[in-house]
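hey all, quick one before standup. I had two proteins in the batch that finished overnight and I want to keep them in one place so we stop losing track of which output belongs to which input. First protein below, input sequence then C-alpha cells straight from the run.
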Amino acid sequence: MADLPAAPAAEIEQVFRAEYGRSVAVLVRVFGDIDIAEEAVQDAFTTALERWPSAGLPPSPAGWIITTARNRAIDRLRRESSRQDWHAQAALLHARDEPPEEGPVRDDRLRLIFTCCHPSLATGAQVALTLRLLGGLSTTEIAHAFLVPEPTMAQRLVRAKGKIRDARIPYRVPYEADLPGRLRAVLAVVYLIFNEGYTASSGDRLVREDLCAEALRLGRLLAELMPDEPEVMGLLALMLLTESRRRARSAPDGGLVPLAEQDRALWDGALVAEGQSIVRQCLRRGRPGPYQVQAAINAVHSDAPSTAATDWRQILQLYDQLLTLTPTPVVALNRAVAVAEVEGPEAALALVDELGLDGYHVLHAIRADLLRRLGRTAEARSAYGTAIALAGNKPESDFLTRRQRELDPDR
C-alpha cells in the first residue's frame, strides 16, 4: 500500500467528532450492549491516535474505526466467554447472528436515540445518555447543557447505564406505536446536540459544525418518519432558522457577533425560506408546542431587516405563550430580553433579578447589558466579570471581555 501522509491531531479529532456517534450506534446494533459498544469504539480511537499520526488517515476512517472496534470487541468477548462469562457469551452470539432489523427506524443513530429514550428511564437520564453516546459529548459538556455540576451528571450517566443493564432493556427498533411516547425525549436530545454545536460549551471555537449538521440530519429524518407530528416539524424549523444566521454570527477572526450587530445579508436565504414555510404549516395545524413557538419567534426575527425594525411586541407575545407551555427560568430569561425592547431595561432587570440561575453565564451577560443601558457602570462591570468567569467558550468569553472594557474606554 502506498505511503499515506501523516495525520495531524486536529484531523483525528475531527474524525472522532464526526464518527463517534455513528460508530457507537453501529456497534450497539452488532453486540446489543452499550458498554461493549462504547468501550470498543474508544479502544479503536485510541489505536487510531497511536497509528494515524505516522501512518496517515486510512481511505475510509469511519469504516476503519467500526471494523477495528468490532474486531477488538469480538477478541475481548472470546477471551471473557472462555472464562464462563455468560454476559460475554450472549454478546458474542448476538454479534455472530446479526439479521437485518426491520421497522420504522432504519438509521442507526436515530434508532439508538429511540432505544435510549426508553420510558423506564427518567427523561433527564434518557437525554443525557443519548448525548453521551450519539453526540460524543463529554460529561462536562452534558452537565453544562443541564446546568448541573459535573459529578452529578457523571452519577446520572452511571445509573442510567446500570438500569439499562440490570433491567435488560432491549436494544431494538421500537414498535411504531411506541414512537410517539418517546418523542419528547428524542426531540430534546436532537435540540441539545444542535445547541452544543451552535454554541460550544467549551473550547476555542464558537461553533461545532459537525454537531449542527448531525442535529439537522436527524431532524430531517424525524420529519420524514413523523411528518404529522407538529413538534417534530417545529424543531426542524427552529434549527433551520437558527442555522441560517450562523455565517453572520462569527467575525473573520472567529469572534462572536451578536444578533443586533449581524450583517443580515449573510443570513442563508434558502434556510430562512424553508424554516418560515414550515412555521406557516405549523400555524395552520393549530396545535402549538414549545418548539413551534420558538420557531415562530425566530421567524419573526428573520422577517426583520434590522434589530430596530423587529416586531418585539409580537416576540413578547410569543414568549408569553412559550412561558405558559414551558415555565422554566431559561425561558423567563429569554422573555426578559424581549421585555427590555418593549418596556425598557429597568422592567427587564427586575425580572432577571428574580431568576435563580446564578451559575448560568448568559443570565449575568444579559444582566450586565441591562445595567450598562441603565448607566449603572460599576454594577455592569461586576456582572460582566461574573459572566466571563462562568463562560466556558473562548469566543463568548472574549466578547464579554470586550464589552466590559468598553465600559471604561480610557483604561
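OK second protein, same deal, sequence then C-alpha cells:
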Amino acid sequence: MSTLKTVAAAVIACAVVGGVGFIAFAEYGQHKNFASISAKVDSADPAQVKRGQYVAITSDCVACHTVPGGQPYAGGYALQTPFGTIKASNITQDTETGIGGWSLDQFDKAVRHGIGTHGYLYPAMPYTAYTKMSDQDVADLYAYISTLAPVKHKVVENELPFPFNQRMLLAGWNLLFFKDEPFIATSGTPPQVARGDYLVNGPGHCAACHTAKNLLGGDVAEALQGGTLQGWHAPDLTSNPHTGLGKWSDEDVISYLKTGSSRQSVASGPMLEAVENSTQHMNDQDLQAITAYLKTLPSGKAEVPVAVAASDPQMIQGKRVFESQCEACHVSSGAGVRRMIPELRGNAQVNAKDPASLLNVVLMGADAPLTAGNPTGAGMPRFDWKLADEDIAAVQTYIRNSWGNSAAKVTAEQVKAARAEVGAKPWLGH
C-alpha cells in the first residue's frame, strides 16, 4: 500500500472511531457503574499482600511502570506505539502524582475496565487482558500496591499527536475491540490447562505482543500467532512446527520461561524484560500450567515457503558473511551453544515471516537475560557499524534458508528501514 493510501486509510479509520467514540461516550460516558468487587482487602494482612505481590509478578506490572534504573512503579517508561509515545503512569502511593488514596473500586475500574480518574486509558495498558482477572486477584493486587512507598514523580502519560491524544476516541475503540468480560474456563477443560489459559490471556497479557494488530491497534483474529511491535517480532505461540512451538518440548517451554533460554532460543527485547521481571519468579505449577495451555493451541496458519536455493547469489554472499562473522559462536551447523547461544537450525523465530527481531539483534546486539537459573548468559555484539545493509540482508537470508530453515529473503531496503526504526548506527564503510 502506498504512503498516501496508508495515510488516507488512517484518517478514515480515525473518523470512523471518532464517530463511534462520540456515540459511545454520549450513551455510556466514563461514569458507567461497575459491580463492586466481592473480595475484601486488608493491606495489613501479610498473606494477602504476599498473594498480591505474586499477582503483580504474573501481570509483569513492574516492567512497564518502572524506568530502567528508576524507582520501582514510579512510572515514566516510554511505550512506543504506531500512534506515538505513551508513558506508563506512577502507581506508587503518592497522592499527588501516583494513585495514593484510590479506592479498590477506582483501582478495579482502571485495571479491568480501562477507565482512570482522568478518563479512558490507552490499551497500551493491557486492561483488555486484565479484564479476565478474578475479583480475588485484583483485590490482592490492590492490597500489595497499597504497601508501595510513595514516590513523587509526575508523568506526562499522553504524548500522542492529534487526534490520537483525544481520549474520547477510546470510547469508540473499546466499543469496537474491547470485550469487558471475566474469564470463564471452557467446559471440560482440565484444571491445569484452565489455569494456564487464565494466566496467558489474563494477567500474563501475552496477546499484547504475540497477536498481530490491525490499523487501529485492535487484535486480529489469529490469536497468539505472532505480532510485531517496537521493532521486535513476538513469535507464534501455537503448535505450528515451522514458526511456532511445535518442536518445543514441555521442558523447552518451561526452561525458556524460567531461565530465559532453551535448546532453541534465548530471550531478547521485551521478552527478556518479561522473563527477568515476571516468568522467572513464577512457581513451577504455573509455568507447567502455561505450558500445558500453549500445547493445546491448534497450529497457526503460517505456510512453509520454499527455501531459497544455495546457489542463489544472495545465499552465496550470506554464507561468506556467516563464516567470517557468525560461525565462531553459532558454529557451522547453526547449532549454537546449549542454553547460551541460540540454535539457528529449525528456529521458529528464524523462520518467522517477519525478520524484525533478527534485524534488531544483528544491528543493535543483545544481552542475554540475567536469571537465577542462567546467571552467565552470553551477549550478542552489534553489527550495525560493521556490516553494510547488503551484507546483513544476505546473512539473514542465508540463515533463514539453511539447515532445513525456509523463509522469505531479507532485502537491503528492510535493513535500512530497521536501522532507522531502532536507531542503529550507520555502517562505517559509508
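Flagging for whoever picks this up: The first helix runs from residue 3 to 28. The chain has three domains: 3-177, 191-294, 313-422.
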